[in-house]
């Protein structure tokens, strides 16, 4: 067993899964993997996410050290998010998850339809 942040894990992969679990975390990380994004742009890119939920997920990703929040001293406030060094290391794995997801659903062509695009 591995004890980390007051929780017990059987394997370090469980820790990684807990870092990215959450309805919007993987989508947020995928958007940030393409470069820094301002908060309102993330809201536009994730219209189904409420402002409260997006804020909460961003705070969790920041506290877990996967993203960096940069506040610019201007009025109105400008807030930008980008991947941290740890987040950058995670990005290729998220891309691999997306690629596997595409391969997986293409194995069941009668059960899939696209309304927008394949990748987050």
What do you see in this structure?
This is Winged helix-turn-helix transcriptional regulator. Residues 11-109 form the HTH hxlR-type domain. InterPro entries: HTH_HxlR, WH-like_DNA-bd_sf, WH_DNA-bd_sf. Keywords: DNA-binding, Transcription, Transcription regulation. With 120 residues, the chain is of the alpha+beta class. The protein has helices at 12-20, 25-32, 39-45, 51-63, 85-106; strands at residues 2-4, 7-9, 37-38, 67-72, 78-83. Strands 3-5-4 form a three-stranded antiparallel sheet. The chain has a two-stranded antiparallel ribbon with strand order 1-2. A hairpin with a 2-residue loop joins strand 1 and strand 2 (7-9). The longest helix has 22 residues, at 85-106.
Share of helix among residues?
40-55%
Kindly provide the radius of gyration, computed on alpha-carbon positions and rounded to a whole number of angstroms.
Answer: 16 Å
Structural class of the secondary elements?
A: alpha+beta
- Count of DSSP helices? 5
Global morphology: globular
Give the number of DSSP strands: 5
Main sheet record: 3 strands, antiparallel
- Give the strand line-up of the largest sheet: 3-5-4
**In what range is the share of β-strand residues?**
15-25%
Spatial separation of the terminal alpha carbons: 33 Å
| Average pLDDT score | 91
Give the helices and strands as they follow along the chain. EEHHEHHEEH
User: Would you identify the regions where 5 or more consecutive residues have pLDDT less than 50?
Assistant: none
